[in-house]
Amino acid sequence: MSYMHSVGLILVYAICFVLSKGASQSRRHPQCQAVTTVIKISQEVYEQDTKRTMFCRGSANVTSCEGTCKSRMIPKVSSPLGFTKVCKCCRENRLRIKKVELRKCYTEDKVLIPNERYTVDIREPESCSCSTCG
């Protein structure tokens, strides 16, 4: 076996090892997807008719975008920087409005107001995908 042949085999082995490492890492970090998470919401509300300020709070299950997307940098002689970047980010395709009822409302003195509720609109992703960053 010649020296050049040995170097070529080592190089092929190294490339295959790096590629297999990248493939196993992408299995550990899932692709971009919509996931459900719980958020806490606090809202200060001023009621015109009663001229009072109240503070309402609650929690809600909302959708968010999570996961990894493939990005890369490609050497390019004709580019002023010498390379081209192709960046992808996990983000929403479309948003939807979700109504959330805040069920605990308090006076400015922190006294619970019985049976008081306040509804807020939250924008959340309807679906997610890997898209151009920016």
CATH superfamily of the largest domain: Cystine-knot cytokines
Quote the CATH topology of the largest domain.
Cystine Knot Cytokines, subunit B
* CATH architecture call of the largest domain: Ribbon
Task: Estimate nothing, just give the exact number of structural domains.
Answer: 2
How does the major sheet shape up? 3 strands, antiparallel
Report how far the terminal alpha carbons are from each other.
51 Å
How much helix, percentage-wise, in residues?
10-25%
Oligomer: single chain
**Shape annotation:** elongated
- Report the total helices: 1
Provide the succession of SSEs. Answer: HEEEEEEE
Count the beta strands: 7
In spatial order, strands of the major sheet run 1-2-6
Residue runs with pLDDT of under 50 for 5 or more positions: 1-27
Measured by DSSP, the beta-strand proportion falls in over 45%
Mean pLDDT over the residues:
80
- CATH class value of the largest domain: Mainly Beta
Strand pairing plus helix content: what structural class? alpha+beta
Indicate the radius of gyration in whole angstroms.
26 Å
Task: Summarize the SSE layout with pairings.
Elements: H1 3-28, E1 33-47, E2 52-66, E3 72-75, E4 83-86, E5 88-102, E6 104-106, E7 118-132
Antiparallel strand pairs: 1-2, 2-6, 3-4, 5-7
